[in-house]
Amino acid sequence: VARLQADPLPGLPEVRPGDDLGALLTAAAARLPGGLADGDVLAVAHKVVSKAEGRVRALADVMPGARARALAAEHGKDPRLVEVILGETAALVRADRGRLICRTHHGFVCANAGVDASNATAPDAVVLLPADPDASARALRAALRAGLGVAPAVVITDSFGRAWRMGQCETAIGCAGLAPLDDWRGRADNAGRELTATVIAVADEAAAAADLARAKASREPAVRLRGLAAHVGADDGPGAAALLRAPEDDLFA
Amino acid sequence: VARLQADPLPGLPEVRPGDDLGALLTAAAARLPGGLADGDVLAVAHKVVSKAEGRVRALADVMPGARARALAAEHGKDPRLVEVILGETAALVRADRGRLICRTHHGFVCANAGVDASNATAPDAVVLLPADPDASARALRAALRAGLGVAPAVVITDSFGRAWRMGQCETAIGCAGLAPLDDWRGRADNAGRELTATVIAVADEAAAAADLARAKASREPAVRLRGLAAHVGADDGPGAAALLRAPEDDLFA
To answer: Is A33 on the interface with B (CB under 8 A)?
Structure first.
């Protein structure tokens, strides 16, 4: 058995607003050899969470305001899409060449405030981030516990761009039952020296590992990670909110 | 068999300057059930690469210059350590509260220009990043090919802090044989819509996945990833240099 294993749950249907995602994941888990167990981590791409929660907007229903129209004209974007993005945005961090980098109301810094047109349910529909991804993760974990009698951790993920580096990495935006950070400060390395500044973003690394096991264009939003039991607890824990760095403490930004 | 599997190579000795790391990895791979195969990715923590390459400095031998002494006094750091950091630094991005965020000569933006005192070979010794991590990855791949008759991809990694988020993620600083980016732009999603801006930083996600399989304080610098063959090629490819975003094109920074 490998130290760490990642396997997509098979046979999830297209998810639509109002669907019971917990029940769909429970059923899909039963079709995966080995199922789900305590100590597993189930990484779920946020799109299916957002769709089940109705966090979808039809652009035809959106009336762009003055600020959205001005930004859209400046950046060559659909003013209705910009209106939806601004609704999700606490602060516009950067805007240039058609790209809007936003700090969302949750505190995530990402392109278009996480609003995405790909993999939406209908043409002209866009998918938002869940309103409270940590609460979504806790609810999914509770549903899995109720349906399966075990309580794997749940991580909800999205792909974020990064400063200084090309490409996107899958990132944890919500979690329940997984310790998001593994703090090695004060512990000794193998030469007995104290490790002074090593705090590992376990939830983000788990999101990344799950993404590698997923065929992006196929319907594999949920991936079981096995081998992270040391980071999984009975308590839901602080959630991915603990991964947000306070702006005033952020040397990197 | 899991879609993605990660397993540390067992029994690597402490690595010292001048050691033949390719030979050590070849021998360790023979002790891992299943060994190494074409299509595998071997993720190697940079520390052992740097040590084998002699990228270690004894602070006792370092004479801090005026700038290092001034920065050290301002930030409560060892002036000899700051001298080593400045030697690795193309630009000081941020300096505050004892932390120096640097753009290295390679172009990486990270704390202390990647200079690290933990897991060093001797007290008062610090480990630098490899001088050319992509070249190091190519050399290790060639050594594995010569020793094993197969050519797994090689990724060299370090843990980097990130803007906006707490904790560090393991990140690719060198690679050979692994396509560092998987560009989905222009391909269709499962509704037939074009995915407009999805470029996945596969090498960084691979580094993160490998880190989760590794016990940080034990001697497990090398991790085999199995299941990424779609991203592995016979050519060494562009290396992790392709992951560096040009500063003038960086909306996130």
So the answer is: no
| Residues A170/A159, Cβ–Cβ less than 8 Å | yes
- State pTM to two decimals: 0.95
User: Could you tell me whether strands A222-226 and B4-8 are parallel, antiparallel, or unpaired per DSSP bridges?
Assistant: unpaired
Tokens coding B77: 């750091």
Q: Which residues of A46-73 are buried (b: 16+ CB within 10 A; e: fewer)?
A: bbbbbbbbebbbebeebebeeebeebbe
- Give the other-Cβ count within 10 Å of B35's Cβ: 15
Cβ contacts (< 8 Å) between B219 and chain A: which residues?
190
Beta strands in A116-236 (DSSP E): 125-127, 153-161, 168-176, 182-183, 199-200, 222-226
> Do the strands A222-226 and B109-111 form a parallel or antiparallel pair, or are they unpaired?
unpaired
Nearest to B245 among A97, A164, A219 (CB): A164
How many Å lie between the alpha carbon of B146 and the closest alpha carbon of chain A?
Answer: 26
Q: pLDDT tens-digit profile of B128-173?
A: 999 999 999 999 999 999 999 999 999 999 999 998 999 999 999 9
pLDDT band at B98 (very low <50, low <70, confident <90, very high): confident
Which residues in chain B are contacts of A97 at CB distance < 8 A?
251
Q: What is the ipTM of this complex?
A: 0.95
- Asked whether the beta carbons of residue A193 and residue B6 sit closer than 8 angstroms, the reply is no
Given an 8 Å threshold on Cβ–Cβ distance, is B204 in contact with A167?
yes
Of B162, B218, B228, the CB nearest to A212: B228
**CA–centroid distance for A231 within its chain:** 18
- The confidence band for B251, taking pLDDT boundaries of 50, 70 and 90, is low
How far is residue B13's CA from residue B23's CA, in Å, rounded to a whole number? 12
Residue of B nearest to A34 (CA): B2
- What is the predicted pLDDT for the residue at A217? 64
